[in-house]
Structures are given as structure tokens and as C-alpha cells.
Amino acid sequence: MIDFISFNLCHVVSSLWILWTVGIFVCLILELTSGDFFITCFAIGGLFAVVAALIGLPFWLQVLVWAIFSLLSIRLIRPRLVKSLHRRGEQRESNADALIGREGVVIEDIQPEHSGYVKVDGDQWRAISKGETIVKGKRVRIIDRESIIVTVEEV
Questions:
Q1: Residue 92 placed within a domain
Q2: Which of 85, 107, 131 is the last residue of a domain?
Q3: Is residue 76 packed enough to be buried (19+ CB in 10 Å), middle (13-18) or exposed (0-12)?
Q4: How far apart are CA 97 and CA 117, in angstroms?
Q5: d(CA 145, CA 80)
Q6: pTM for the whole thing?
């Protein structure tokens, strides 16, 4: 019985690198939802913990390696990543705001005081015009956006 327990304990301890690897992937998946590179730093710490596990360090030392390298990543790597992300300043355009200035094709007539639809880069957007009728098939440029409705003018 004791041999069985010690065998399982040795097997678990020698497989800790798998636990750290799963933790790395979980952190990277979670990072996709935040986008601020904070969780990525824990994944970087996890890489060093994997190395510590592979060379056979005890679990408490692996956790210490993970914590130290995670904190170092937060302090040294994250600021550079955030700076490169915000290279153009805080005036980043969202996906919808980036539509302004883009061109598309009318796929449903746009009548004065009624909306129609335009297709821009494969996406359909409800559109209005500045008082003019724009018929299906005409090329238009997006000049403004209010919520999910774009204002267009004929090109």
C-alpha cells in the first residue's frame, strides 16, 4: 500500500510540468478576453515553472519560480508590450469607428428619411444619407456613424 502511494506521489511530482503547461494555455486564453497583457505575464512565469519542473525542483520552489518570474514580467515586459499596443496614443478607433472614410456598395436603396443597407468589406450596415436618394449598386463613402447606423454619401 505504501509503495503504491509513493509511486503515485512520485508520478504526480514528475508530471507537474503538465500542470504548468495547462496553466500557461489557460492564461493565454484568458488574455484573449482582456487584451492588457497582465495575464500573459503569468503565462511567462509558467514557462519558467515548466523548466523548474523538468529539472526536478520541488513543487514549492516551482511556485516560487513562477511567482518571481511573473512579477518580473509584470514589471519589465508588460510596460513595453502595452506601450507597443498604444503606439498611436489613446485615440484608437474601435471597429465601428474605423468604418468612417471606408467605401462600400448600396445593397438596398436609401431613401430620404428612410434607411437602407450598404455592404462594406463583406459586412452589411444600416445606412442613411444626407437627404438624397441613393440607389442599389452605387458606391458610397461612410462619413459618420451613430450607434449601428452609418451615414453615407455617393462617391
A1: no
A2: 85
A3: exposed
A4: 17
A5: 33
A6: 0.51
Which cell numbers in the block locate residue 6? 509513493
**Residue showing cell 497582465:** 38
Residues 78 and 143 in one domain: no
Q: Is 51 exposed, middle or buried (0-12, 13-18, 19+ CB in 10 A)?
A: middle
pLDDT of 66-116, one tens digit each?
Answer: 999 999 999 998 888 888 877 765 555 566 677 888 899 999 999 877 889
Q: Are residues 10 and 80 in the same domain?
A: yes
Query: Alpha-carbon distance 41 to 81, whole Å?
Result: 11
Q: Which of 152, 102, 106, 108 is nearest to 130 (CA)?
A: 152
Q: Is residue 30 part of a domain?
A: yes
Query: In whole angstroms, what is the distance from residue 26 CA to residue 57 CA?
Result: 23
What residues make up the domain containing 25? 2-85
Q: How many domains does the chain have?
A: 2
Which residues have C-beta within 8 Å of that of residue 107, sequence separation ≥ 6?
116, 117, 118, 119, 124, 136
